[in-house]
Amino acid sequence: MCPSPASPRPVPQAPTPPSTDAPPRPQWGMLLTGLLAGLLLSGGALLVWDRPSPPPIAIQLPPTALPALDPLLPAPASPTPAPVVVHVAGAVRQPGVYTLPAGARVVNALEAAGGLSPDADAVAVNQAEALWDGAQVYVPRLADGATPPVIGVSGESRAATVALPESGAGLINVNSATAEELETLPGIGPSKAQAIIANRPYASVDDLDRVPGIGPATLEQLRPLVTVQ
Predict the structure, then answer these.
(1) How far apart are alpha carbons 82 and 102 in whole angstroms?
(2) The pTM is what?
(3) Which domain holds residue 202?
(4) Are both 135 and 88 inside the same structural domain?
(5) Are residue 187 and residue 126 in the same domain, yes or no?
(6) Which residue stretches of 85-199 are H helix?
(7) Number of CB atoms found within 10 A of residue 202's CB
(8) What CATH code is carried by the domain that includes residue 127?
(9) Is the Cα dihedral 139, 140, 141, 142 positive or negative?
(10) Using one digit for the tens of pLDDT, what is the confidence trace for 152-170?
(11) What does pLDDT average to over the chain?
(12) In the chain, N or C: fewer CB atoms in 10 Å?
């Protein structure tokens, strides 16, 4: 018998030396940097979010300059003067109360009353005198005698030119005169005439000051024209 060939022997392997490489370490520096960056971004976002809104900005517009007046244009119209209301009494054709335009004169009032009556003493009244609201124009009669015109009394209660009768002639008795006769007096209209009648009797002319609407100025106008006898 032939001998069996010998089995190969396993070759012993040298032991693997332990690895000298250390396991990877986490990158702590990068992690901290990222964490700090995130915290800063979050804090900045919170600051921006919580910051109050700034107040609105008010824009002041420059004042508008007034347009210059064109010298070629007409000037603005002034207010139209109000008309005047006057009482015309005495020797005229149509005694009464008339409304006249501003700037009217006694002659205009006489024309509105129909003109002078035939027995009027025309020279006793200044027909060129200017009128005002509330004035009274009294025209005396020739039968009253020659009487010069009297200058109107100044002030708010002034009357237009009034001719005074001679002493004792043509005086109106305030204790017995009718309302129509009283209305011929300067400054006396229908309402004051009724007030004079309502406050009778009068012991003297000075007692007229108790009549509503008759003040010192009106009383001075009436004094030479009236009597209580």
Answers:
(1) 6
(2) 0.37
(3) 171-229
(4) yes
(5) no
(6) 106-112, 179-182, 190-198
(7) 18
(8) 3.10.20
(9) negative
(10) 333 344 444 444 444 444 6
(11) 74
(12) N
